[in-house]
Design goal:
By secondary structure, this protein is mainly beta. It is built from one helix and eight strands.
């Protein structure tokens, strides 16, 4: 009888935790973005760059939380001979369920070519308010037709818990 009661109690607590929306997962996001770019060119590959833009992301793991998310990122970097190691910014992931999650990131790379870095979840809205986790990010710059804009292919891989 004690085992039955203990099993029922564990089942009730497990169901209650799941019902509250607590969970975890692994993301493997890919998507394309467009970024308004502001740059100050000092010549010879020395630049100060800020950007603000949006991207649409598909999760290759089909994670139910982050699949088909839209993101906005605002960030910046400075280059020396077209190389940078100081990229920083914050992104807001707008999720399909109407909630949002925020990350901050750092990166390094080559101006106009690519970049890679790390990110960490800093908070979210609603059930994701206390989200935690981290991962890696990457970017490949694509050819763009409009002056003052950058087009990119972006990736985010990592783990989270909320």
């Amino acid at each position: 009888m004690k085992k039955i009661i203990l099993t029922l109690i564990i089942t009730i607590f497990s169901t209650a935790t799941f019902a509250d929306g607590h969970g975890s997962g692994k993301i493997k996001l890919e998507g394309f973005g467009s970024w308004a770019v502001n740059a100050l060119n000092a010549g010879k590959g020395d630049l100060a760059i800020t950007y603000d833009g949006i991207a649409s992301m598909k999760d290759l793991n089909e994670d139910p939380v982050f699949n088909n998310a839209s993101i906005q990122c605002v960030g910046g970097l400075t280059t020396k001979e077209a190389k940078f190691e100081d990229e920083t910014g914050i992104c807001r992931f707008d999720l399909i369920d109407g909630e949002s999650v925020f990350i901050k990131y750092t990166g390094k790379g080559t101006s106009g070519v690519d970049g890679s870095g790390t990110f960490e979840f800093i908070r979210g809205t609603g059930k994701y308010e206390n989200i935690k986790g981290k991962g890696n990010s990457g970017r490949i710059n694509l050819k763009t037709k409009k002056k003052g804009f950058a087009s990119t292919f972006n990736t985010f891989t990592g783990e989270y818990k909320y």
